[in-house]
Amino acid sequence: MNVAAYLREKAGAREHCALPILSFPAVQLMDASVGQMVKSSDLQAKAMEIAARETASAAAVSLMDLSVEAEAFGSQVNFSENEVPTISSALIEDMEGAEALEIPQVGAGRTGIYVEAIKKAKGLIHDRPVLAGCIGPYSLAGRLMDVTQIMYLCFDEPDMVKMVLEKATEFLLAYGRAFKEAGADGVIMAEPLAGLLSPEMNREFSAPYVKRIIDALQDDEFAVIYHNCGNTVLSLLPELFAMDAAGYHFGNAVEMEKVLAQAPKDVLCMGNVDPVRCFTNGTPDEMTAAVQSLLKACGDSPNFLLSSGCDIPPHAKWENIRAFYAAAAACK
Fold this sequence. Notes:
two-stranded antiparallel sheet; alpha/beta; 16 helices; globular; 49% helix
């Protein structure tokens, strides 16, 4: 399947399709916890299959767990029964630590579990693409160095940051190839920390590394979808679109109509119903209104595909998730 062409076709269809980042809420329909699911390929594959069965999503998507890759490098992870895992502390504090950082093999930590989950999901889901998930290089470096500290280090110790970025990129290339070999139709690469960068900083510390990954992995049968939910996205768009990803996914910190105003008509853009305010804390009526408003503003753009603004939290209400799809189907 040419996944990029498939998604563009879905975006241009008269009936509005949707591709939210939906996987974790499936845990509510399973006899399992989030803590169990992030450590089990069987449960992850089952969650993806349940989400596909319960919804009309354009693709099945893997868990957006941005602790996995940092854990493979040696970072300590905070696990919870009901919340998505987080990194507990910085692994690298100085140049000596950056130099000593070893690039792990795919399979270290839980990365092997996530690759195996994709292989199993492909055996369960046959009616739509299956998309893996991974973190972006700058966001991975931020977790290894501390997400606040890396902002200072970009100014004070840029060579140190770039050393970590090189190692992060090399690992992500191998991780992406493993997903590809497991049968994934593409990957959603989450680079949210780059959403705090200026255009100049993005050009130096994120975009070149992301571009290298896209160029190495993407082809007609494997799509790389770039996700950035930061609030500086509008100023970054020229650099982002120049990376030539198969699609771009944006958060609710920006207005999608402003994104589309800058996007070439052949560049697929996805977003951006608020995952907390609408999916988690809202009501079905509020969800319906949010979808209708977004489609009124963006639905006529042939390169727009309705989505959530980011990963939908595990405890999001299924009545709101169903209202999201129903509202999309009702809008012509």
